[in-house]
Write a structure and sequence with these properties.
With 250 residues, the protein is α+β, with helices and mostly antiparallel strands. The chain contains nine helices and five strands. It is 50% helix and 6% strand. It has a five-stranded mixed β-sheet, covered by helices on one side. The structure holds glutathione (GSH).
């Protein structure tokens, strides 16, 4: 059967033109997530640090039934209490901050914050994948965790643990190729470079800004998985991580 041609503009990050109030659950700000997704953890940590009461919709990673209404097929997706629909984790962080007291600089105003928010996706997210999925043993361990914690159906769970481990091992290999150093050394180097940008207690100085939540969410997704000892043993990043964990309770 011929595939239906895709019509309409490509989905994009940021605030969307159409409000979807029916997708805000119990009239609260709502995030559509996977429990173990690093990008979703960025958003959860900001919401919790601000004491914002929110609904969380766990999306089935295989069927994505809960996200069928959205052109943007990645998580997180955010729907505010009034139905405002926002895509892409860094844009969601900015939106939530802007509508809840505006404590960190807006995009385009503070190049340091912007660069470190980009770093969370372009460098840190890829560096942790290379370490977590360093070999088949560590990949299987990660997929065992992911398929237990994320919302998989029972049948999907068993198949995806094994299939996922093979696929993610391949992804890990390709991520490792992006960097000159082997995965563990590379992650250590990336944490060292983050340390240089943490002034006082946070990237934001005395208070956390978008760069803090963006990078914390990525590293939080690694807790309990292969390579997290690199974070725990880092003399600057571990105290920063612990401060972020304390204030966000995620
Ligand atoms: N740039 C996006 C990336 C989000 C992303 O890649 N999320 C993953 C889950 S951690 C995803 O939804 N992948 C597509 C899929 O599962 O089909 C963001 O920052 O929100």
């Amino acid at each position: 059967m011929a595939r239906k041609a895709k019509t309409g503009p490509e989905p994009y990050g940021g605030v969307q033109p159409k409000k979807v109030p029916e997708k805000s659950i119990d009239g609260k700000p709502t995030i559509y997530t996977y429990a173990t997704c690093p990008f979703s953890l960025k958003v959860k940590s900001l919401l919790k640090s601000r004491g914002i009461d929110f609904s969380n919709v766990e999306v089935d990673p295989m069927k994505k039934t809960e996200l069928k209404w959205s052109d943007w097929t990645k998580v997180p997706v955010f729907v505010d209490a009034d139905g405002t629909h926002v895509n892409d984790s860094n844009d969601i962080l900015h939106y939530i901050d802007e509508t809840n007291g505006g404590k960190f600089p807006r995009k385009g105003v503070d190049s340091k914050q912007d660069e470190w928010m980009d770093f969370s996706n372009d460098i840190l997210g890829k560096s942790i994948v290379a370490v977590i999925y360093k070999n088949y043993r560590t990949s299987l361990h990660a997929l065992d965790y992911v398929t237990r914690v994320d919302k998989f159906g029972l049948k999907d769970r068993i198949v995806n643990k094994w299939l996922g481990a093979i696929i993610m091992r391949m992804v890990g290999k390709s991520r490792a190729k992006m960097f000159d150093e082997p995965p563990r050394e590379n992650l250590t180097n990336q944490l060292n470079s983050m340390s240089g940008a943490i002034e006082k207690d946070f990237f934001g100085g005395e208070l956390p800004n978008g760069a803090d939540f963006a990078n914390y969410g990525i590293l939080r997704s690694m807790q309990g998985l292969n390579g997290f000892d690199i974070v725990e043993n880092h003399d600057v990043i571990w105290p920063w991580y612990s401060r972020m964990q304390l204030l966000s309770d995620v």
